[in-house]
Amino acid sequence: MSTMSPKCILIFSGKRKCGKDFVTDLLFQRVGLENCALLKLSGPIKKKWAEANNLDFAKLMDSSEYKEIYRAEMNKYGEEMRNKDYGYFCRASIEMYEAEKKAVWIISDARRKTDLKWFKERYDGIVKTIRVQANDEVRKSRGWTYTSGVDDAETECGLDTEETWDWVIQNDGSGTQLDDKLNEIIQWTQENLK
């Protein structure tokens, strides 16, 4: 399949255990797998970390406790790379997930203002940002425990002050609100695919 320019890019952000993966997986299925690439900016970080340290890449990518053991070290590595080149993992994820073959890009895990900046600089006019939120009690019920050095680091707090979200999804378990927001996002996506 040949390469193409994306027609719309949806960038999601949110705290640990807010349900970003759940929401983006649901959207990915609804938009249509043939049109869509689901990118995880953390994918290249975890892949390189797994290779360098002889770890299980698949386990680093899931929501298990396995990745929590290595989270702080991976975050440090990711910060070092971003300080050298803030677009490094954005480009690496596009390549890793072969996004250039798809019209719709869903980025499931933006964590910094530079993540948003990089995509907006290159794809102005086709980028929408979405913040996924859940209250702390819901996050705890999903396995979240506050961890110093992780939950107070830029990887969790870098977008807390961002106020320009195109959509905010409160993901506390109410399907109606989630469905309404996803329908709005899908409608925007379909309009851009015309």
What's the topology here?
Layout: E1 8-13, H1 20-31, E2 36-39, H2 42-53, H3 57-61, H4 65-84, H5 88-96, E3 104-110, H6 113-122, E4 127-133, H7 136-141, H8 154-157, E5 167-170, H9 175-193
Parallel strand pairs: 1-3, 1-4, 2-3, 4-5
Helix pairs in contact: 1-9, 2-5
Describe the protein.
- It is a single chain.
- This protein has helices at 20-31, 42-53, 57-61, 65-84, 88-96, 113-122, 136-141, 154-157, 175-193; strands at 8-13, 36-39, 104-110, 127-133, 167-170.
- It is 50% helix and 14% strand.
- The mean pLDDT is 90.
- The chain has one domain (8-193): 3-Layer(aba) Sandwich (Rossmann fold), CATH 3.40.50.
- The chain contains 9 helices and 5 strands; from the N terminus they run βαβααααβαβααβα.
- With 194 residues, it is of the alpha/beta class.
**Which series of helices and strands comes N to C?**
EHEHHHHEHEHHEH
The CATH architecture classification is 3-Layer(aba) Sandwich
Query: How many structural domains can be distinguished in the coordinates?
Result: 1
Largest beta-sheet characterization: 5 strands, parallel
Could you tell me the number of beta strands? 5
Task: Provide the helix percentage.
Answer: 40-55%
CATH evolutionary superfamily: P-loop containing nucleotide triphosphate hydrolases
Spatial order of strands in the largest sheet? 2-3-1-4-5
Rg over CA atoms, rounded to whole Å, is 16 Å
Q: What is the CATH class designation?
A: Alpha Beta
From the spread of the alpha carbons, the general shape counts as: globular
| Oligomer kind | single chain
- Poorly predicted runs: none
CATH topology: Rossmann fold
**What percentage of the residues does DSSP assign to strands (E)?**
5-15%
The overall pLDDT average reads 90
